[in-house]
Amino acid sequence: MVEASLIPLPTVPSMIHFVDGLRSPEHRYPCAYDDGWSALKWVTTRPWLQSGKDSKVHVYLAGDSSGGNVAHHMAVRVAESGVEVIGNILLHPMFGRQRRTESEMRLDGKYFVTIQDRDMYIYVCARAHLHKLLN
């Protein structure tokens, strides 16, 4: 079950909607993307979240690390569906490729996650769907 919370911001007329989706390895790909889509559809259908000026729900997507990857894929899905989103905020999004880039090789092990770590995360979380996740 997806857990979410709405937090009002007292200084500006807005709300933050956090989604704590189902996680791997118990819940495999594409459940994180499905959870994100369900949350987005829920937010955009709440009349009490509409702007007083134009009766729209003004939405920004945001995510950090693998959440940045989910936010990116939500933005792609949004573009194909007609759901309106104002912007996308990606904080160190985690992307992978079948072929390594020069910077991946040069920076491997110099920062938080190594190539071996990323490969393990992808394998554990989505081994049956690698062709859909990697470019």
Report on the architecture of this protein.
The longest helix is centred in the middle third of the chain and has 16 residues, at 66-81. Helix content is 39%, strand content 18%. It is elongated and about 50 Å long. Strand 1 (3-9) and strand 2 (14-20) form a beta hairpin. It has 5 helices and 4 strands. Helix 1 crosses helix 2. The strands form 2 sheets. It has a two-stranded antiparallel ribbon with strand order 1-2. With 135 residues, the chain is α+β, with helices and mostly antiparallel strands.
Short characterization:
By secondary structure, this protein is of the alpha+beta class. The chain has helices at 31-44, 66-81, 102-107, 115-126, 130-133; strands spanning 3-9, 14-20, 60-64, 87-91.
Topology as a string of helices (H) and strands (E): EEHEHEHHH
Number of strands: 4
- Helical percentage: 25-40%
| Mean pLDDT across residues | 77
User: Which stretches of 5+ consecutive residues score pLDDT under 50?
Assistant: none
Query: Approximately what portion of the residues adopt beta-strand conformation?
Result: 15-25%
